[in-house]
Structure formats: structure tokens, C-alpha cells
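User: C-alpha cells for this one?
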Amino acid sequence: MAKPVITLPSWMNKGEPKKLAAACATFWEKVKGWISFPLDQTDPETCTVQILNLLAYQRDIDRFEGEPLWLYRLRVKHAFVNAQDSGSFIGFKRIFERLKIGDMQQLERQPGIDWDVIIIRINDNQLAANATLMNEIIRKYGRTCRRYRFEVLNVAPLGMRAGWFDNDHQLISARPGKDAAIMTESRLYIMTEAGEILTV
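Assistant:
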């Protein structure tokens, strides 16, 4: 916090009055800190952990095992907005973005899958880093009477080249002993009824 500025008239801006003004500025800076301390404690991003636990209790957030403090603060901060967005298609996507999980896809009522299953597509990194968090999100903000299934979708760059491909083929058939000899530029192998291979 910056010290409050106390401006003295030019005939008093020296000696004892100047020292007294500096002491008053320091005192009022401390008073401002004492007054603003309780207000600062209501901000989940800056408050102490003890106050954060009280705010989390008030907002119905439980800290899961191994959860980093920054994520716990983020969940407490967005608890009210996340509760408002719960149960809707676009709101569920917003919850994932607010908690810094990243982009995800939701698929509902897919052919061949039960109607109450919602598929959430994410990549490997998201699932490995946030598995417990995603289960907590589904438990707390998921739709009632719906089942959720995670699908891992990895995107890889694909390169293709275009080129010319040409093929020419020729099929010649003959019945052994009945058709005349076939003359071609290349050799032709014919198998007789007796199992002999003839070269034409």
C-alpha cells in the first residue's frame, strides 16, 4: 500500500511539522491495512488457508486429496458461477474452461449407446493431470440421472502427398486342349486338367 500524501504549505514544509506529517502518513497507512485486512480475506485468491477453508465450507466445496492450493482457490472462487452453470450443455464446457482443464467435447444420445450416457472427449494429458478433478466436477455439477463416460481423443498431425499412379493389366483365359495357342509378347502359364503347366 502506498502512503497517503500529506501536503503541507510551503512555510510548514520543513523541520518538525514535516516529520510529524511523515509519522501521520505512516500511522494512517497502518490503519488502512488494519481496516482492509478483513476485506482482503474475502477474496479466495489472496486470503489465508484458514479463511479459505471457511469460504469453501460456505460454498460447499471439499478439498480432495492431493489437490494443489491454486486449484482449491480457483474452485472456491468460481463455486457460485459453476453451480449456476451446472446441468447445461454449454455451462459444463464453461466449468472445464474456468478450472483450466482445457477444451473438451460433449456427445449426447449417440447411436448404439444408452440414451442417458454423455460422452466427454478429452486428450491423454487432460485425463492424466485432472482425473480426480474431473470426477469431482461430474459428481458436483453433472446432470441428474445421467451417466458420464470419458473418451480419450488424441490429435496427431497428418501429412499426405499427391502423386500419379497408373496400372495396366491384361487377363487372358484359355481352355487346355480346346482353344488355339495364344501368342503374347510375354510368357503365359496355363495349367492343364492333368496338372501340367504349359508355357505359351
